[in-house]
Amino acid sequence: MERLSLHDNPSHAQQRSSPPQQQQQNALGPASQGPTSGPPQLPPQMFTTAAQLLDLTDKKLVLVLRDGRKLIGVLRSWDQFGMNRMAGSRSAYTDHRNFSAANLVLQDTTERIYAGKLYADISRGIFLVRGENVLLLGEVDLDREDEIPTTVTKAPFEEVFALTKQEDARRKTGDKKRYTELQAMGFEPEHSGEILF
């Protein structure tokens, strides 16, 4: 598995086939051997578009959803739902959010929940995720997948689920108290704090 950053050049095969001028454009800083045309370009590994999803197909991913759920599964299929589903309808032209997200289909999906220093896994099977609900998406390193950090311990699902509900209730009461205090000072909270990381 390649570990690339912004400063890495594309693979050697791409370097050999591209002219020397284009090799210099892959760095974010100014070119070291003469002027280049246009602004500096990001390397291909930094794009999060449909092309990147194509690269992640059939790989094991971890997804964090907007409601705080964490899913681990193999990306089997995806589509850009706004393009085909709403083609020709009036709302397709007015709601631009539909064009920026993709539905994701995960196979062998496991939902992982955390409570304090405990975690539990529950099998979910095939899982369809609407793209606008994805907060974070990343590839699982298969070489390190089985290495569980020593800071967390696996526990039965029922125990961790009950602890999670207690933590959520405590957080909601604390948020409600804080929002009341903020409103007394003239502030209006934007969100209810439902998004968890």
Tally of DSSP helical segments: 6
Low-confidence stretches: 22-27, 82-99
Strand order of the largest sheet: 5-1-2-3-4-6
Shape: extended
SSE pattern: HHHEEHHEEEEH
Query: Would you tell me the overall average pLDDT?
Result: 75
CATH class of the domain at 50-157: Mainly Beta
Biggest beta-sheet profile: 6 strands, mixed
Termini separation comes to 26 Å
* Helicity level: 25-40%
According to CATH, what is the topology of the domain at 50-157? SH3 type barrels
GO molecular function: mRNA binding
Subcellular location: Cytoplasm; Cytoplasm, P-body
Family: Belongs to the snRNP Sm proteins family.
Biased composition (Low complexity): 11-33
What's the gist of this structure?
The chain has 197 residues and is an alpha+beta fold. It has helices at 12-17, 20-24, 50-56, 81-85, 91-94, 157-184, and strands at residues 60-65, 70-79, 103-115, 118-129, 134-139, 153-154. The protein has a six-stranded mixed sheet.
